[in-house]
Queue: 4 jobs
Job 1
Amino acid sequence: MTVVVTGDGMRAQSGLTSSAAGRRGPGRRRARTGLALVTAGLVGLVVTGGPAFAGLMGGGTASPGPSGAAVTVPAPAPAASSKAPQAQQRTQPSNATPSSADPAGSKSPAGSTGPAGSTGPAGNKSGTGPAGGAASGHVPLDADGNPADAVVDDATAAGPVAEPGPAPGAPSGDAGAGDPTSAGSSADPSGGAAPSGEPTGTEPAATNPAGGGPSDGDATGTEPADAEPAGDAGVDVNTAGVMAAIQAPAGVVVVPVPGGLRVAWTHDGAGVDHYVATAYDQQGSVAGSCLGAAAGTGTCEIRVGVAADGSYTVKVVAYGGAGASDPSAPATSGVVVAGPPAPPTGVHATVTSATSVRVGWTRQATPAAGVDRYVVTAVQDASKTCATGDGATTWCPVTGLEPGTAYTFRVVAQGAGGDSAPSAASAPVVAGGPGAQSTDIPEPVNLVVTPGDQKLLVEWRAPWDPDHAVGGYTVHVEEEPGRDCVTTHPTCTIEGLANGTSYTMSVRSDGAVSRESGWVTATGTPSVAPGEPTAVTAEAKIEAITVSWIAGAPGTGVARFQALATAPGGDHGVCETVTGDSCTISGLKWGDTYSVTVMAIGRHGRNSAWSEPAKVAVPHEVTVPADLPAGIGHFGGSSGDEVAPGELFTVTGSGFAPHSTVKVAVYSTPIVLATTMTDGAGTFSAEVSVPEAVKGGPHTLVAAGVDTGGEPRFLTMAVTVAVEYEATAFGDAGGSVLAVTGDPVGRTAGAGAALVIAGMLLVGASRRFKH
C-alpha cells in the first residue's frame, strides 16, 4: 500500500478503495485486542506458573508471599532433629534478605508486575522498579517482535538447589535469565543487577548484609553460599524473645540403698526450677519418682514404689521457665535391697547363774524373713555377747560374766537390709546376786494383753520346760499390786480396773520347788468399744466412692473411722478419717461393683463391729470433655511449648489421686494421645505424640484425671504444632514449613489462561473477517 500526503493535509491512497479500508478496520481492531489479551494472559501465566512449575520439577516448593508473589522454598533435607519442620521454619527467615516491597523476604520472580523501575547498574534491560518486578505493562519481545518466553528465576538464598545458569554469552544482568542477581532477587532488595561480567553458575548468590548482590569476584559453583544476617540487628524474627531450651541432665548414676534408690546427676542449673527423677520397671511402667526441688540439686532418693529384689531404669528431666528438658540418658540400677529391720523392744535380763543371764526381747513388726538373727551385747563389756540362729527366736543366754558385776544389755536385729539401730538398754542385773539359781526357770513367752470393759485379759504361752521346773505363774499389776493373779494356767483376767487408764502387766514363771524366772511385761488399757456405725451410704465418683455414715456410741473414745470397699474379684480400697462422718476411697476400678462397710476404731484398742454393708456402687470412668475444660493447673513436657507432628515427647504432672487414671488429650477437637496411671504420690509421666492429622498452629494439651475426692481434675499445657505447607502449581497445600499468606496463585493462572484463549479466538476471528 502507498500513502501520499498532500499539501492540505489530505492523503491519497493508491491500490485501495474506500470500501476495502472500511472492511479492514474492524479486523485490525479485533486482532489488536486479541494480541493484547494473549499478552496479558501470558504475563499472568508467567507470574504464577513459573515458580510453581519450578517447584514441581524439584528445584523448590513455592508458596504465596504476603504480596501475592511466589516465595521459593528449598526442598527440605533430612533433619537431624526429631522436630525437622520446626527447625526449618526457624531457620528460613535468616537466609533471605527482606526487600523493600516484601518485608517477609519474599522473592518476586522475573516478569512480575510492579512499579516502573530504572535501568540496572550494568546497563542491562532489567525493567525493574524498587520491588524488583517488571515495569507495568512491559513484556520482553524476541527478535521477531513476539512475546519472549519468560523464565522464572528459581534461585534461592536459602537452600543448596542447583539452578541452570544463563546461556553462554548472555548478559549476567538480564532479567529472568536464571542469574541469582536478576531483578526481584532476594539477594538485592534494590532490584539492581549484579556487576557486569561476573561469573555465573549454579550456586545461589550469597546474601550481602547491606542488601546488595554478590561482591565482585565471587565464584559460583554447586554449593550454597553462606547467608549473612539481614539488617543491622541480625535477629531471627521467629526466635526473638524465646527462652533458650533447657539442656538435659547428664551423668546420671543410680545406686541401690536400703529400701530405695539414690539418684545423682550433673547439670549447670541454668533456667531450672526443679528436677524429677523417674524410675521405670522392667516392663517400662513408672514405678516411682523423686524431686530435686532446687536448681542445681544433683541428687534425690526414690523411696516409694520401688520393691526389694527389683532393678530399675531411671531418667532425669529438668523443669524451668522454658518448659522441660529432654529426658536424660537412661541409667540402670542394681537390685534394690530391703531396708533394715526395726530395733527390738522390751529388752530384759534374768540372772540364771553366778556367771550367766538370759536376755529376752519383743520382736517388732518386721517380718521374720526380714530378720536373719538377733545379737545381744553387754553395754559394760562388748565381749559378753550372744546371738540367735534365726529371726524368730527372742532370747539367748550370755555367759562368762563376772560375779557381783552389774550388767545392762542391748539387742540389734540383723537382716538383708542391714542392721537395726540398737535397742534401748535393759534394766541392770547383777550376775551371781540374790536372783542367781542353779537351775534355769524359763520365762513365759508370747505375752498378750487384751482390753475389756474395766478389765484386762492377760495371756501367754507356757515356756519350754524339759526339767519340769515351772510350777505356776504370777501376774503382777504394776499400778495396783492388790489385783495380782496367781495361776497354773497361761491366762488370767484382771478386773475392777478403770476404763481409759493404762496398766502394766508383768508375768513370771514360778519354780516347782523354789525360785522363779524373770518378769516379762506388756501394757493394756481397759475401755468400752465404740458403737457400730449405721446408715452407711456409698456415692460413686470417678474411680472412687465417697462413703458416709452415722457414728454410733463413742465408748471410751474413737481414734478414727475406717471404710472398706470390696469388689467380687477381690479388688478393694480403704479410706480413714479421724473426724467427720465421710471419706473417699480412691484408686478403684471403674465399672466394678463394690460393697462398702464402716468400722469405728477405738482409742484404747477396742473396735466396733463392721457396719451393715451399704448398697453397692460402681465407680465412673475418667473421661475427656468434648469442649476444652478450664484447667486448675499446668503440666510440662520434654519438648517445651513447640512440637512437630509425630514427634515423641514426655509429659509429666501431679496432684491427682494415687494409683488413678490420667488421659492426655490434644484440643480443639479432643484426641486422646495416651492413658496412664499415677504413682503412689499422684504423679504421672507419659510419652505422647501429636498426630500428623492435627492442624498446625496453637493447641492445648489436657491431662484429665481425678483428685483425691473423686472429682474431675484437669491440667493444661499450651503448645504450638509446627505448620506443614507445600505449594503446588495452583497454590494447593503440601509439605513445606512456610506459613501461607496472600491469595492462591490458581485464580491468577486461570485468568491468564482464559485471556490467552480469548485473545486467540479474537485473532482467528479477525483473520476470517479479513478473508
Job 2
Amino acid sequence: MSTAAELTLPEGTITMLFTDIEGSTVLLQRLGASYRDVLSQQQRIMRAAIQEHGGHEMGTEGDSFYVVFSSATAAVRAAVEAQRALLGVSVGGGHLRVRMGLHTGEPDRHEGGYVGLDVHQAARVAAAANGGQIVLTEATWSLADGHVTETVRDLGWHRLKDIQEPVHLLRLVVPDLVDEDQPVRTIGVPASLPHPATSFVAREELIAHVDGRLREPSIRFITLVGPGGVGKTRLAIAIAERSAAWVRDGVFFVGLSEVRTNEDVWAAIADTIGVAATDREPAALLAWLRDRSVLLVLDNLEQLPQVHQVVARLVAETVAPELLVTSRRPVHVGAEQLVPVPPLDLSDAVELFLQRLAAVRPGDPGDLAVVRELCERVDGIPLAIELLAARGQVLSPAAMLEQFTDGLDLRSRTVDLPARQRSLTAVLDWSHELLAPAAATGFRRLGAISGVFGLAAATAALDMSETEALDVLLDLVEASLLMSVEAPGGAPEFLMLRVVDTYASLLLEQDEDELAATRSRLTAHVQEWAAATSGELRSRTHLAARDRIDRRQQLIRRVLADALAPGSPDAVLGVQLAADLITYWYTCGYETEGGRWLSLAAQAAERLDDALEGTDRVAVTRALHGLAIILLQQGRLAEGEALLRRCLAAWRAAGDLGRASVELNSLALARRSQGDSAEAGELFREAIELARASGEAGLQINAMSNLALLELDRGSPAEALPLLREVLVLDTQAGDPWGISADHVNIATALVLAGETAEARAVLMEHGPTGLELGDTDLAVEIVENLAFVCAAEGRDEVAAAMFGAARDAREAARLPRVGPDLDRLDALLAPARTRLGARWESAVAAGSGLSLTEAFSLGVDADGSDDRGRAG
C-alpha cells in the first residue's frame, strides 16, 4: 500500500469486514476452469460495494476479503449490497454463497495496516458464519442499529476459536435475501455453564469416556447416575466443557433442582438457550432445536416423576441435539445410556481432601495415613470429603479422625449451596423422600445389614418373597441408595455405602419393634447360612467356602455385634453363629478376631445360663470349645485347659461320645504343651477309643496325628512317621485340604528329625504352596518354619535365619506363639545354624523381618539351587 493510501486509513474506532466463499475447494473441483470466472465476478461485486461505501481493502487472498470502514453503518450497507449482488452469480444449481462477518473495535495501526485482538475476532466472526449470512457482533450492531433498514436475530453468546471470552453474536436479517437460518459454527456456548469456585479433581478417564460416547452417532442421550454428593453435577460440567470443542451450535446447562413440573422444565430449557418468545412453546422449541448441534445438560431430574415425557420428546422430535442428564435414578426412556458415577478411588479422594484442606489450612497436612482413613470413612464421596476438609479451619486431620462418628453430622457453612447439599443428612433426606412407600420400608430394614449381601439375606431382612425383594432392591439401586456389585458366579449381590447404611440404620432404630423383628430374621438367616458354609471348610470345596465367608465378613460382624450385645433377644442365635464360625476363624487366619467374638459369646451364654437347654446348650458348649482352642493357640494354656475340661464334662453328661472325643484330643494338646506327655498320651488314646465307639471314624484322625507328635517329642520319628502317613491317607479319603496340608507339615518335621533332609524338602516344595494358599496363618507359619529347619540342616544358615525372622514376626502379629515341646523343637533344629553364624545370627534374622510368609517360603525354595552353605566358616 502506498504512503498516500496509508494516510487515508481511518483511525480510532473502525469496523472490519471479513468474507470468503463457502465451500470454495469443492466448487473449484466441481467447476474446474469455470471457477476463475466465478471468482472474478465475486471480486468485482465485492470491490464495487466496498468502493461505494467508503471501505478500505486491506487484503485479498484467494476468495477472501479483509476490509475496514470508518462507519459501522457503511460496513453493514456494503455487506448487504454485496450479498444482494452475489445472488446473481450462478454456480450451477444455485447462487454463490459467501459468508461475511463484521466486528467493530479499536485495533492499533501498524505499518500499512492494523494489529490487535479486534482484527482476529472479526476474522473468527466471519468463520462462524454460513454461506449467505452476515454475522456481526453486538459492538457493530449497537452503532448501526437505527441507521439501516435491516433487523437482526440474536444468536446469544458463543465461544470463538482462540478468543478467550465468549462473544455476543447476531445475524443480520435482510428482507429481500434468503433467510439463511443455519446455526453459526462456533465451538460452544460455555457462558451457559456454571463456573464452580473450586477446581475439579480426577475423573479424567470418565470424562473422556462420556465425551467419546456422546460423539458416537448412535448415542444422543446419556444419564450420569449416582448417589447424592458423588459429584454428578461437577462431572457433567467438565464433560460439557470438553464437548464444547466439537458441539457446533452451543452447550447449554439447565439446572432443574428447584423445578417440579414438566412445564417448568420446558421453560428452563428455553430460558437457558435464550430463544425468542415465539419459540418457547414445546413444539416451537423442539423445531428450533431439531437440526442444531447442541448439548443440553439437564441437571438434577430425580424429583421429576414425569420428566421422561420431556426427554422422550427431545429425543424423538429432534435430530441433532445431544442430552447429558444427571440424576440419582434413571429416566427410563428407550434411548437412555446409563453411566454410573462411583465415589472417588482412594488416591483421588486424598488429592481432593488435600486441595480443599489447603484452602482453609495451608501447610503440612500431617500423617497421610490419617487422611486416607478419613477418606475411607466417608466412602470417597466428594461432598463428604469437602465437608470434612472445611473443618480444617479449626481441626487438624488427626483431630477430625478422633472426632469422627458416622459422617452424617458433616455440614457446610457455605451459604450459596442448595439446602439439600449442605450436609450428608440433607443429601440422604432428599433421596429418601423420593422413594415409594415399599422402597422406603425396604431401605429402612436394610439398615440392619452391613457390607456385601445377597438376595437371600435381603429377603430375610425385608420379610418379603424373592420377587418382592428383587423389586425393592432394583428400586433402591435405581435411586442410587444401593449398589449392585459383581459376584463370583454371577449371583446378584448388593452393597450400601457406609454413610448410607448408617442413615438407614438410624431410620430403622426409630421403630423398636421393627428393629427387633428385622434383626431376628436376619440373625436366623446368617446363622443358618454360616452353619452350612462352614461345614465345607474341611472339604474339597474349602477355598470356595472360605471366599464366600470372606465376602460376608462385614455382615457377619454386624449380626454378631447386635446378637451378642447385652439384652439382645437373639443371644442364643448369636452364640450358635459364633460356634459355627470356629473352623473359619481357626483355619483361615482370623484366630485373634475369633477369640474376641467367642469371648463375647461366652459372656452372653453366662447371662443366659439358667435358661439354656437342649440345642441351645450344645451351641454354648461348642462356642466355649472354640474359645478354648484359640486360647491354646495364643499360649494361654491354663485358661484354655479350664474351658476344655468344662466342655468335656458337658459332653460326658450329655452322653455325646463324638464331641467328648474332640475335647479329649484338645485337652491332650493342652497337657502336651505344658510338658505333661504322659497324661497327654493317655488322653489321646482315650480320644481315639471314644471316636471309634461313636461310629464317627473321622474323629480319630486328629487324635492319631497328635499321638504321632508325642512320638516326635520323645525323639522317635520312626514311630511317628507310620502314624502320620496313615492319617494322611484318612484325610485324603475325607477330602480335607487343611488336614492334608497339616499332615504334610508334620511328616516333613518327622523327616527332618529322622535326618531325611532331602525328602523333607521335597515334601515341602511339593505341598507347601497349597498349604500357603489356604490362608491359615498358623499353618503357613509352620510351613515356613519347617523349610527353615531344612535349610539349617543343609547348612544354608543365613536363609534359615531370615525365614525364621519372617515366621517369628508373623507369629507375634497373629499372637500365635510356639510353646512347650514345639518351642523346644524349633530351638533345637535351628541351634546348629545359630551356632555357626554366631554374632551374625540376629542380623540374619532381621533380614527376614520385612518378608511375607510367601516371600520367605520362596527364599527357602530358591536356596535349593544355590551353593550358600556353611558360610559360618
Job 3
Amino acid sequence: MACLAFRRHGRTWNGNAVETRPLNLKDLFRREVRFVVPLFQRPYVWTKEANWEPLWDDLLAALEPASNSSDASHFLGAVVLDHVRGPLGTTEVRQVVDGQQRLTTLQLLLAAIRDLAQASDLPDRFYRSLYRLTVNDDEMSDDPDQIFKVWPTNADRAPFRDAMSAGSEAELLRRYPSSRPTIVQAYLFFADQANAWAASMSDADLAKAFERLVEVLNTGMYAVVINLDGGDNPQVIFESLNARGTPLRASDLVRNHVFHACDQEGLPVQKLYEQHWARFDDGYWREEVSQGRLFRPRLDAFLGHFLTMELGREVPAAQLFMTFRTYLKQPARPPLPELLARFARYGDIYSGLDTGAGLDAYERGFADRLRALDTSVIHPVLLRLLGGYGPDARRPAIAVLDSFLMRRMICQYTSKNYNRLMLDLLQRLGVSTQPPGDVVREFFAGQTAQSNHWPSDDDIRHAATARRLYRAGNKRRLRLILGLVEQHSHTAKTERVVRDLDNLTVEHLLPQSWEAHWPVAPGDELKRRHDLVDTLGNLTLATQHLNAALSNGPWPAKRAALLEHSALNINRTLPNTWGHDEIEARAGHLANVLCRALPRPPATTNTAEKPDTTERLADVEAEVEAEVERAMVHEAPRRRNIGLHIQRVLQARPAGTVLTVSQLASATSEEYPTGAASPGAIRERLNRGTVSGVEATTNQAGHLAGTLVNQPTPATSPQPAPAAAAAPITAQQAVPRTAPAVVDVARLQIDFHTAMVNVYARARDEAGYKATFFLRMVAEQGGLEAARQLLHSPAVSDGFRALWERGRLDLTVEALVLEPKYRDLFTAEERQTAQQRLKKLGR
C-alpha cells in the first residue's frame, strides 16, 4: 500500500523531510551565491539536439503574446543543493547534489544574451539586469573565480571561465579556433541563436522584445530547488534521484501539489490516492512516449492532453505544472475529489487508446491507425469525444477525423498545422449545441486554408496513380493503406478473417529490379515504368517468407504463388498479365475502395485549393536519392525546369493570358510533356518572382496566377494559338528578344541543382557525412535557392562545420558557388561571402 507524506514546500527521502521551493532565475541567481559542483561528478555532457535546442525553444515560446499570462512560467526541472559551511561574511556556497548540467547551461544562456545586450545599442538596464544574474560582487574576496555563480567540476573550469568572461562570440572563437569543449559549444549555440533572433527585427522592435526577454529570464522560468539540511546524506539522495529512482517530472509535482491541497482541506488523502491516483504510479505510466522530437513519460503526455482539453488551448510541456497549479485555483473548478475522479476517468480513456479497453471494434481500428500516423495532437479532441459522448453520438465524429487524417496521409500532405487546427475544433465542440458528428464534419468541410485541405476523391485517385508512395512513404503507413483496402474488399458472401497485418510486408508486383524478366522498350515506356513501379497499383501485402520467394521472378510464377499461398482478397483478383496498363487500372480500383472506406462530403463544400506539393509529408531523402540513382541508369529522364515550363506554357498562349497555378501545373510543355508539374514549385517561383519575363498576379476569383510581362520568343516555339497567329505584331512585341540568355541561365540553374545533389552524394560517400536537412532544402526549394539561403544565413551551417572537421571544404556549398561556370547565378556579395568563409577556415 502506497503511503504519502506531505509538508509545506516539502518532500521526503528515506523519511527525512527536505525543503522544496520553486524559484525563478532572479531568486536563484541574483543573490550573492556560488553553486559548486563536487569533483566526483561527471563533466558537462548536455548536447544541442537533446538539451540546448529545447531550452531555446521554450524561451522563444515564453516570449509569445499567448504566453504573457500568470501561468506562463516554464518549468526547468529540479536542482538539489546541500549547504556548505563557510567563514562568516563570505559569499554563500551551496554544493550541487543534482542539477549541475541544468545550472551550467542556464548560466551560459544568460551570459550569451548578456553579451548581446552589451554589444547592441540597447538601454543599459538590460545588460545590468543580466549581469547581476551571472556575476557575484564580493568585495571581500581576493579569489578571481569567486565572481562565477556556478563553479563546475575541475575538467570544465577553464572553458567555463572563458565562456563566461570572453564578452563576445568573436573573442571566444579567437580563443578556441578549433577543437572546442562542449561548454564553449553551448555558449556559441546560444550566442548564434540570440544574434539571429535580434537580427530578425528592427531597432524599435528589438528594444521592446529585449525588455520582454529580460523579464522572462528573470521571472518567467522556474526550477524546483530542493535544499538539504545538516541531517541529510547528499550521496543517498543523489543515488535515489539518479540511480535507484527517477527524476522529478511535471506529474510528480502535480501529484504532490494536488494531494497537499487535499491535506490542507482535511480530505482523506490516502483513500483519494488509492481510488484515483495509485493507477498512475505503475510502470506503464512512466514509460517514455514520443511527443514531437522529444520523449516524455506517458503520464506527463496525458497530463498535457488533459489540460489542453480542459482549457481549450495549447499547454507546452515546460508549463505543465504551472498551468495545472493555475487550473486548480479556478473558482469554477469542481471539488478536489471530483477533479481527481475526472482525471482518473480520462486517464483510463487515454490508456484505452493503447489497450482497446472501452472501445468498440471501429474505434480500436481507428486507434491503431492513429498510432501509425504518429500524431498526438488529436488526443485532446479524442478525449473530449470518447469521454463526453456515447458510442452512437461520437461514432460519426470519429469517422470524420479518420477520413480527414487518413486521406491527408495517403496524399502525403503535411501535418504541420494540425496543432492549431485541433485546438480550433476543440473550442468549436465546447460551444456548439449540435451533435458532435455534425460539428466535426462542418468544421473540416469548411476549411479554406491550403494546409487544412480535406482531400477529395479525385485527390485520392491522383495519389494512388501518380504518387510514388513506396519511395516517399513510411512502410508502416503503406501497410496501413493496403490493410484498409483489404478490410473493405469484402462482400456479403465473403468470410471475415482476422489477419495480423503487422506481420506482413509490402511487396512490388512488378519488381524494382525488373531487368531480367520484365523487358521494356526505351523512351517513353521506360520513363513510364520508372513512374509506375512505386505507385500504389503495383504494391501488395505478403508474408516475409512469401515475399522472399517471389523476389524478382516472372509474372506467371509470382501470380501462381500469390494465389496458392495468400489469403488476402487484394491478391485474389490479379490478372493473367501484368504491365503498365494493369498497374494503372489496379491503382484506380484501390483508390475507389479507399474513397468508400474513408467517406467525405462532396469536394464542392471545400473551397481551398489543393495543398502545394512542398507541403507533402514525404520522405524527401528517398525521393532525391531515387533521382540520383536514376541519373546513373541508361536513358534516365533529365531533371526538368519548372521556370522554363511556366515560360513555355504562357508563351504558347495569346498575349495577356492569365493562368492560375493549377492551370499551369496541368498544362503541357517540353519540360513536362504529360502536364504533371508541381503546383507547389510553381507557386514558389511566382511568389518569389524568379521566372524571367513572368509576373505574379491573381485571376478574377483571387487565385494566384502568372502572366507574361514582355513575351520572349521561345527557343523552340510551340504551335501558337490560332487567334495569336492572326494578330498583328505590336510595337511592344517588336522589342528585341533575349530568349537565348534566358535559356542559358535556365540550363545553368539545372546544372547547378544537379551539382548540389552530387555534393550531398559525395559528402555521404567520401566524407561519411549524411546531410539530410540539406537534401530536404534542395528538394523543396531547388539547388539555387537553397544555396542562396545558406549564403544569406548569418552563421555557417552545421554541414559546413562538419565538412571542415573532416577536412573536406571542397564539398561545401561555398566551394561549389565559387566555381567559375556558376558565376552568373550569384551576386558579387554572395560570392564574397563564400570566399570569406572558406578563407577563414584555411582553404
Job 4
Amino acid sequence: MLVPLSWLKDFVTIDIPVAQVDRLLTNAGLEVKTIDYFGIPGADLEWNRELVLLAHLLKVEQHPNADRLVLATVAYGNGRTKTVVTGAPNLFDYRGQGDISSSQIYSPLALEGSVLYDGHKEGLAKTKLKGRELRGIYNDAMLCSEKELGISEEHEGIILIQKDAHAPDYQAGTPLQDVLGDAVLEIDIIPNIARCASIVGVAREYAALTHQPIRYPDYSVKMEGEKVDGRIQLTTEEPELNPRFVGYIIEGVQQTASPYWMQHRLRLAGQRPINVVVDISNYVMLEMGQPNHTFDYDFLRQRADQYNPDGPIHINTRLPHDGETLTTLDGISHKLAPYSILVTDPQGNLSLGGVMGGADSEIKPETQNVFLEAAAWNFINIRRTSSKLGIHTDAAFRFSRGVHPSQALLGATRAADLLNKLAGGTVANGVIDTYPNPPEPVTVTLKLDYARRLSGLDLSGEEMAALLARLEFEAEVHDDHLIVTAPDHRMDIEGPHDLVEEICRMYGYDNIPSTVLSDVLPPQRGNAQLEQEERIKDTLVQAGLQELITFRLTSKAQEAKLIPQNHAAGPDGRPYVTLTNPLSAERADMRHSLLASVVEIAAHNSRFQNRLAMFEVGPVFIADEDEILPQEQTRLSVVLSGQRTVLGWQNGDAGSYDFFDLKGVLEALFNELHLNISYEPVDHPTYRPGRTARLLLGENQVGVMGELHPLVVEQFDVQLENSDQPVLAADIDLDALIAHIPSHYPYDPISAYPAVHEDIAVVVDKSIEATAVADIIRKSGGYLLKDVQLFDLYEGEQIGAGKKSLAYHLTFQSPDKTLTDKVVQKVRKKIVGQLKHRLQAQLRQ
C-alpha cells in the first residue's frame, strides 16, 4: 500500500526524518519496502526552494504574435509578479477575463535556472530552464505540468490548484516543496496487520509508537435534505455474510473534477482520478480502509416504480439463485458461485457484495442523485468469491482481510460529508442502517506471569496496561492479571498471546534485553527420517542433479496429464483433498503425484535449458474416508532429458540422456544406501512401452522408472530438440526405501593380493534376463568372485534363432593368498555348470 507522508500528517504529527519513520514502522511490523520522493531531498528531481515556487494566477491574455500562446501574469510572493509565455490549453478559457485573482487559482512557477524534466521528450530527461524570446516576447519562467515536476506523465496542461474553503491555505511564493513535495512509503500489508490497510490505520500505529494522540477525520455530516424515511428499505437474508449495511441519499451532486489536492493524493497513492464522485469513494477507502459504493439513485427509483410504484426502493443482500449471472463494472459477465453474496433489488442484481459494482447501476455522467452505501462483509466469503471469479479489487483486498462492522457507518458518513462539501450534494436527513447482529466486544484475560515469561520483560500490570492503552485497548489492572478489551478495529485479537505481541511492539523489540536460557536443555534426539532424506538429496546432487521444491497444491487436470488421453487406465480416481478457498483454480487440490509436479517444472525449464537433470523429495496427500486428515506419503521423483554433459573444448558431442543414465543415477543412490534393488520390465501408462522397469526391493515394488510416454510429454508441453529425444523419469516410494536402509553394514578389508580377471560368454534363450544370469554367476562364484559386469550382448544367425549371447567380465580375488589358475578354473567350472543346469546355458566358444 502506498502511503503519502503528507496525508499521514493530517492525522498525526511527524517531526522526524523519513528514514526514521521507515525504521520505526518496520521494527513494529509494518515493513516499508520502498520510499519514493517527489520534489524533496532524496528525489531524483529535487525542486529548488528558491526557484520553484507556488504562484497566484492574476490574469491571462492572448499572445499578440501567436494564436496558441497566452501571457499569464502571476504573483509569487513579496509583491513580485511575472508574466509567463505558455501554451497550456487549460489556460485558454481564462483569456480576456481581466483580473481573475479572486478566483484563487494557483500554479507551480519555475524561474530561470530551475532544473525540470523536459515535458516534450520521452521518459525523464532533465533540462535547465533558460530565458529566451518566444514569438517576440522574452520569457524566463515557466508554469509547470505534472510531468515537468516528475509527479506523473500528465503533460496536457499545467497544474491548476483551486483554493477554496476545504483546500489547504496556499500562499503565493511558498516553495513548491512545502506544497506538493512528498515522500511515499510502500508498506507491505500482510494478513496480520490488515488494520493498517488505510492512512488512518498507519497513522494510528505511528501515533502509538511515538506516544501521541491521533487526530481522526471529522465524522459529522450536514443532513439538510428530505427525510430518508420510507424512501429505501434495506434487508439481508444472510446476516452472517453481511452483518451491516449503511446508506445515505445525496441529491444534486455535481459531477466535476475533484479538487487538485485530492487528485494529487490519489495519484501518489496509486489511484487514477476520474471525477469527484468516484474520487471521493476511492479517497475514503484509502483514508479509512472502509470501501464504499455509490449507486445511481434515480436508476434504483425507476426500477422500484415497476415493482413498488408507491413504496420504497427495496435493497436486499442474498445468495445467488442457480445459474445466476452478474455483469460487473468492467463489462465482464460472471457466473456466480453459490456462496457469492449479492446486493439486489426485486428487479435483479445490482452489485457483487464487497468485490465490485454492477454495470447497470453504475454512476453515469448525467447522474445527479446517488445512494451511497458502506457495508461489512464476511472476510472469508469475500476472499473465496474474489479468488473464484478472479476479481481482485482494492475493496476486495480490504474486505477479504477483515473490516469491522463499526467502520461502515464512519466510512459512509465521511464519504457523505465530502460529497456535500466537494460535489455540492445535499445529504438527505437520516441514515439507513441495517445492523442485525452487532458483534460482542473482544475481552481477553492476560496473566501477568504468562506475559513476563513469553515476552522476557519484567513489567508491572500498570506498565503493560499503559502500553496497550497507546493502541486504544482498555485494560483493568488486577493483582495477577489484566482484563483487556480490544478496540473494534482490532479483529486480529484472539487470545493473550496477541496482547503480549502488542506489548512487545510498543516496548520495542530492540529494547527487549538479551537473556541467557536458564532452563535445562532438553535431550537432543535425531530425526532418522529427515536425516535419511537429506542423505538421499546429497547423493543425487553429487550425481549432478538439481533439487526442486514445488507447490504441494495442484489440480486434477494437471495430474491427469500423466495418463495419455483415452487410455484404458483413465485418470486417478481416488478422492482428492480439495481446498475450500484456493488462491487459484490451478492450485485447488493437494497433489497425489510428485512426478506430475516435477515434470511440470521440467516442461517450463525446457523452454530455456537444453539439459534437464532434476529431482524432488516431497509428500503426496491421499484422502482417507475413515480419517479426518489425509495420508501423507513421501516420494522421490527424478526427471532427466537433453544433453548429458555441458559442451566444452574437450568434448564435441555432449550426447543425450538415455534409459541407462537414469538407471546409473538410481544405482548410485541405492549403492550409497546399501540397498539391493532389482529391475524388472513392466507396462505402465505413464511410460513408453518396452522402456519401463519397476524397482523391486525383495518382492515388493518400490518404484517405476523409464522413458515417459510421448503423449505424456506432449500433454505437459515439454520442449524437445528433436522427436527422438527421450524424457526419462522415476517415481519412488521413499518411505519404503528409508524403512529398509540398514543402520549398520559390514566392510571388507582391501585385499593385499592380486586379482584375476576373466571373461565368460554364454548363450541363453532371449527370454532370460541378464540379471538372472548375473545372479547365478554371483551365487556360484562364492566369496572369491568380487565383481560381475555385463559388457556385451549379441544376437545373430551364428548363435541360432531365439538365442542371445551375454558376455561378462569376472573379477576373482582372495583376501588371504594369491590365487592360482587351478583354483580360479575350479570356480569357473562351477559357474558354467550352474548356468547349464539352471538356465540350459551353453558356453560360447
